[in-house]
Amino acid sequence: MSLPAQIEIDLRPPKIAIIGSGIIGATIAHRLSKSDMEITLFEKDARPNGASVRNFGLIWISGRRGGEELRLALESRKIWSEVSSEIPGISFSENGSLTLLTSEAEIDLANEAINSDPSNSRRLAVITPNEVESKYKVTLVSSVKAAIECELDAVVDPNHAVIAILEDLSKTPNVTVRSSTQVASIAERIVKTVHGDHEEFDVVIVATGTAGIELISPYGLPENIGISTTSLAMASTHAATFSLAPTIADSDSLRYYPFFQPFVSKHLSDQDPLPLRHGAQLLARQLTDGTIILGDSHYYDQPTRFKVDIEIVDHFRAKLGSLLNADIPSLESVWTGSYTRTLDPIRPYVAHPVADGILYVTAAGGMGMTLSWAIADEVKSWIQARPRQ
Ligand SMILES: Cc1cc2nc3c(=O)[nH]c(=O)nc-3n(C[C@H](O)[C@H](O)[C@H](O)COP(=O)(O)OP(=O)(O)OC[C@H]3O[C@@H](n4cnc5c(N)ncnc54)[C@H](O)[C@@H]3O)c2cc1C
Question: How far does Cα 66 stand from its chain's mean position?
Fold first, then answer.
């Protein structure tokens, strides 16, 4: 009698390496930590230092492009809200936003855009200055004729949300966070660090933001995957004596958010030269310590730009003061940040398997904070669907 051939079943938990502990790497690690996987998160610096700690913390729904971008943003916002009780340090707040409109043309543009989506899934409404005042306790100057309200827009703490997620992960037995450990190469799923140690993993996720491209360059990316880098300049003020609950945007933001963009040429004339020079819109939000963060300008052709032009941050501060008729405190700091951005108008980020078991996840552009949890869930599904080797 011949015995049946032995079938070997691999019962050890899958080993996953995640390189980069920005918001993309951290949220992927957090979603995977709820499974039976063993996760090692590599971060080259003592703590994340990229776009994920240099941003506005806006969980921004209002201007999202219909389709995948909006679907992922709504899904991710829901998860931000759910995890906020588990990880209170992310300071999620459903503060809403107001885009201030100063002309009939801007109001027409807003109404036409809103009417173009009968389901109004972004929950937008054009409201009057009186409604702004009674609902948000924000007094506007008389030149502001109306505001686009988005009740779904929310915020997290831009400096600490990712740190809070990492702190939560450090309490999780199946997650190892290796800070100050730069990964030097990932060939054949063997992760080598600059310290000389190496380890083989079942899956390697590369979430290195604008850095770490040397890990991917041995494989290259297909021509149909276009990624570019954008630099931004931002500023924060000293603490204000007044409180500003909602996020404020000026009407220049209609020119930059894809939901409104198709209606711009019909309704708006050219942008003023100064914000145009800096690819700028005013965005302003207050942190819990009273400081106000101001931005943002976009430099598409200067990925390593470090300079902040004072004329543009002065413009942001003056514009906010003129719209709210308030004394905006002096500037306390200015900084730059950069992100990678996909050139694909349909898929709002890149998740590309560069080699067997190696997934490159990047290029969520100015939406990385907003989309992160939904991206993490898609990456988790990709890992779970992968056959064991
Ligand atoms: C000024 C500014 C404002 C923004 N505002 C918003 C906003 O309000 N809302 C929003 O949704 N999005 C916003 N964004 C976009 C968002 O911040 C980014 O899309 C997101 O943070 C990108 O996250 P990431 O994890 O891919 O990259 P990063 O945050 O850059 O993280 C990558 C990490 O990988 C590490 N790393 C790199 N190479 C290696 C290596 N070889 N080994 C180990 N570790 C490595 C880096 O040290 C870094 O910590 C803004 C971006 C900027 C710059």
Answer: 17
